[in-house]
Amino acid sequence: MKILVVGGAGYIGSHTVRQLIRAGHTPVVFDNLSSGHAEALPAEVPLVRGDLLDADAVRAALNAHQPDAVIHFAALIEVGESMRAPARYYRNNVVGSLNLLQAITETRKVPLVFSSTAAVYGTTDLVPIPENAAMQPESVYGETKLMTENMIHAFHTAHGLPYTVLRYFNVCGAAPEGDIGEAHAGKSHLIELAALTALGQREKMFIFGDDYPTPDGTCIRDYVHVQDLADAHVLAVEALLAGQRTEGTFNVGLGHGFSVKEVLDTVDDVIGTPLNRELAPRRAGDPPRLVADATRIREELGFKPQFTNLKDIVQTAWNWHKGHPHDFKQ
Ligand code: UDP
């Protein structure tokens, strides 16, 4: 089937393009390349360089390529930046998504898979977090994702748009081949920062708080490998195309978590030398535990993650960063 992958040149998008091809589909990418990379795409995949804020360009891409389904990744994703520049985030993420929804319903009315986030839940004491937990996003970023989820649901009700929303937990790792991986400007994620520290690009790792109510005192997160997440999109789009479902919202995670110390110990193990570590104050807004209740996606979409071992996950991230110390620039 032909799948339009909006934001397909980014980290998760490019891995999804690869898994779609492996599953026998034909992806076409629509991306403004603001943070994505054309180099992350196979040469045979058509790349339409366009912006969701240009409603005519979105409609033109749908008319030109006549996809059977759309997967929507395109968004600004930095929590801190979203608090400093809210207008940019609301415009890009909400207005951009609205343009896409309107274009889909006006032209092809094909199914949509949307890239959402556990940030829609905000700080919660629930462990693990089910999909029906209260949603109180604490950042503009999380709010733009929740607003888009609500818009999609309204388009489903009003126009019969079939959709699946995937709420990601902590996405990490890279393709086992080591040729694509995390490559965006705002580096803040634990595993990526540890890899860059190992490469000598940073002096040390800071542990943001070790007095949390967890077994070793550091925060616990549910780390889902990017290739497994990509497979979740393939499953979601195939279920929509088969008419097996017309709407649904799923957490995507392993269903269990690892602490910051466990992650850093694993990085030391993979790189074969201990990284410098320093204890730092807690980072504002970090809940002690964020772990997905992933029952629903396993039972309803047949999601079965391949990367469940932290060492394997970290190894793929390390292979990518070691081979591409400056992302795609070399
Ligand atoms: N973290 C840390 N040091 C770092 C980066 C992250 O201790 O240099 C911690 C962070 O406080 C959180 C966990 O690692 O508890 C995962 O953070 P990340 O930014 O990777 O993802 P988030 O959970 O914020 O989406």
TrEMBL record:
Task: Give the catalysed reaction(s), semicolon-separated.
Answer: UDP-alpha-D-glucose = UDP-alpha-D-galactose
Q: Which UniProt keywords apply?
A: Carbohydrate metabolism, Isomerase, NAD
Query: Might you give the EC number(s) for this enzyme?
Result: 5.1.3.2
Q: Any idea where the NAD-dependent epimerase/dehydratase domain is?
A: 3-253
* Pathway in which the depicted protein is active: Carbohydrate metabolism; galactose metabolism
Q: Which SUPFAM superfamilies match?
A: NAD(P)-binding Rossmann-fold domains
GO terms, molecular function: UDP-glucose 4-epimerase activity
Kindly report, in one word, the top-level EC class recorded for this enzyme: isomerase
Provide the assembly information.
Homodimer.
Q: Which family does it belong to?
A: Belongs to the NAD(P)-dependent epimerase/dehydratase family.
Concerning NCBIfam families, the annotation shows: galE
Q: What is this protein called?
A: UDP-glucose 4-epimerase
Please give the organism: Deinococcus aquaticus
